[in-house]
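Do me a favour: review this protein, sequence plus structure tokens, and tell me how the chain folds. Record follows.
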Amino acid sequence: MNEGKMSQQPPLAGKVALVTGASRGLGRAAALELAAAGAHVIATARSTRGHSTVPALPQTTVDDTADAVRAAGGQATPLKCDHTDPAQVEAVIRHIADTYGRLDVLVNNAWGAHEGGAGAGGGVEVWDEPLEQLRNMLLVGAYSDYVTSLLALKYLMGKRGRGLIVSTTWHTDEPPGWLLYEVSKAAKNRLVYALGHKLRDTGISVVGVAPGWMRTELMLQHHTPEELAGQTETPHYAARGIVALAADPDVSRHTGRILDVGELADLYSVTDLDGTQPHWYAEQRRKRLVE
């Protein structure tokens, strides 16, 4: 057989990936891109067909994500899960253990603190912020990442002694932006660093991925094309960076770090759907330093 004509095996063939918050946005894109790279994706979210947490956004449930993966020729299993509930998370992890016996990639992406019309402060004084919103952001942020990561480690990753945990997050701003968002993301980022430190000798890597301003379904609903023009990107840009990390045999060199999607583009030559490589965060950081 002519080796040049042999089809190249996808980089994640035979791997199993769990993507939380996979009904829309970056979670949906991550599920699609991981599956395209050959992984069997378990996609979880609270939104299921007929029971969406955001009814105004049609076809953004975990079932729709799985259908899109299959339509593209990939493998996906949709499961309903609220990742703030340890019992529900444990049921998902046990299902993966019983069905597949392995978990190679965990993408902690669940997030829901903007639901119900909550916005970025709206110019109010800090003492006028809703007191319950930080609790919600921490629950559907650092806490859900913590619960899912530890249960995945307990039942699967820790026993196998290898794997990758990715948390989608955001670089905290200097000077700080929206108080609640800054605190919640700082907690996620510290979890990445601390967990990566604790697991540094296990063969399990922990990396944070920070996208720029993404044109998600929710963002497109609340902003005009003119407002989104310029430095925006699709969720597939960061998702492709996550795939590159998962396929990197030397990914442990990044453990404990928060990597901007532009850094991933430079490291792995990934591009957005239109072939561009936005460097949104680096450009904004340089701008703030000049100012």
Observations:
- The two ends are 62 Å apart (CA to CA).
- The first strand starts at residue 16 and ends at 19.
